[in-house]
Amino acid sequence: MAALIGLAVAGIAISRAVERERAQMLAAIHGRADSLVWALEGGARLLERTGPATGTLGRLVAEVARQPGVAWIAITDSTGRILADSNPELAGADLYTPEEMRRLAPGRVTRGRFSPDDPNIYETWRLFAPSRLRGMARRHDGAGSDVRCVFVALDVSGMRDALKDSALQLWIVAGLVLVAGLAVAGLGLLFRRYRSSRRLLADAEALAAQVVRNYPAGLVVLDTAGRLRLSNARARAMLGLDAPAPGHAAEPPAGGALSGTGLDWAALMAELAQGPGLVERELELWRPQGAPLPVQLTAARLLDSGGDVTGYLFALRDMGEIRSLQRQLRQHERLSVLGNLAAGLAHEIRNPLSSIRGYATYLTERLKDDPLGHATGQILMEETGRLDRVLTDLLSLARPRGLAPAPADLAAVLGRVVTVAAPDAAEKSVRLTANLPEGGAEACVDADRLMQAVLNLVINAIQATPAGGEVEVALERGEAEGEGTPGWRIRVRDTGAGMSAATAAQIFTPYFTTKADGTGLGLAIARQVVEQHGGAISASTVPGRGTTMTIRLPGGACPEKPAGGAP
Known about the structure:
- It is a single chain.
- The chain is elongated and about 130 Å long.
- By secondary structure, it is α+β, with helices and mostly antiparallel strands.
- The longest helix is centred in the N-terminal third of the chain and has 49 residues, at 2-50.
- The strands form four sheets. It has a five-stranded antiparallel beta sheet. A five-stranded antiparallel beta sheet has the order 7-6-10-9-8. A five-stranded mixed beta sheet has the order 12-14-15-17-16.
- 23% of the residues are buried.
- The chain is built from 13 helices and 17 strands.
């Protein structure tokens, strides 16, 4: 009888322990889902500030869904239609019907359930509100049609196995309890609970560390004394910091590792301590090497359970790429306006210019026996020709013609460039060399347009190099700009006088030139041609030591035309 009572008591205790462990695991799962949603909302909030970008939210969802243990992530509207999914092919499909969505009733608190289709999948859902920061009241703007919901499905097969193993181990402990006595059984249960708590604590710490490490922005945590307590690799790279030794805090910002970055950390902490709970602003980080880095700073206080300030959190988002896109947009807008102006100028100027050139040709022939008159006519013809070339370049820049890409050997294209530019180099006594790979260097390019762009760079290099100097044209394998895929790099290096930083910053600006007889359109057209090929062009210069122009192009063969398509 006593054994039966003991077994019954043990069974009840084991059942409760398993339920508690299950509840703790579900709480940890909810916490992980909240962390993933927080990361999604933080990334989406950044995207909403910088303007819409096609497919960007989908890529953000796919990136977050790559975390271990994540089955899938989807963002839907209030009717259940998928707006973004970790599987891009499901975008636009229905995740749930409107009736099911009303039954699920997403709110600000995360809810969850085991998937009715797969017991190893635990599905959580809540409202998706990137415009509302964590811990702040929800903003009401009177519009309800843009309500979005986020669903996060986690693989919990390990949890189920762990619960089974835990239950088995507890039954073994129960047998030992019956043998050794109630006292030993009590100690065993306490020990099991301690181990479970430690494991959950370790998992929570590992999850927090993973979120901090993979957060797309730089994170810095300072204590109330201004000492660095936590930072991720992104923040250390942005601030030029070395990772602190484990278990040791960095020196305070004043005179320590965080000084010299253009940020007044003490003033920011004082502002947070006395004023709002959140500070947001855009500023520039000054680093020992490289140009100032534009960042968006978000700072907040860290509070303990009693409401006392324990530290300060700083999130630094790199705005360099966004600023670059904004500059490109402004450049495209200027070129659009320039295109309309160029068309009018070409129409209004070319007709009288043709008449002037015709009369100049006629007068030159009539006055060939008059040296002064003949020379004047020649000057008129040359100047009208130069004006016509300026108009042609202007139209080419403002309204570029389309490419005719075809398989081409880049080494052969660059070889023709060197051959064409060789007389100019010989005339200036500049040594022109080519460093081209043997074998195929195939790419899908418009060979004539690309040759025009590279030839422009080579001629500029020859003109900038004094007699006895050297200009080198090199082709090597590299990566396509911003893609990490195989491509090609074309380098044009000279040993001329180089450029100042102010000049280098404007060389691709239309009509900017340092030459007395230049139009300032050559490099702008070269960049346009390279960008039409899906590449990028950049300049590296050292005053007194020369300049290197680098073109990055995607590699590979041209895509095959669809069967039966237009030629």
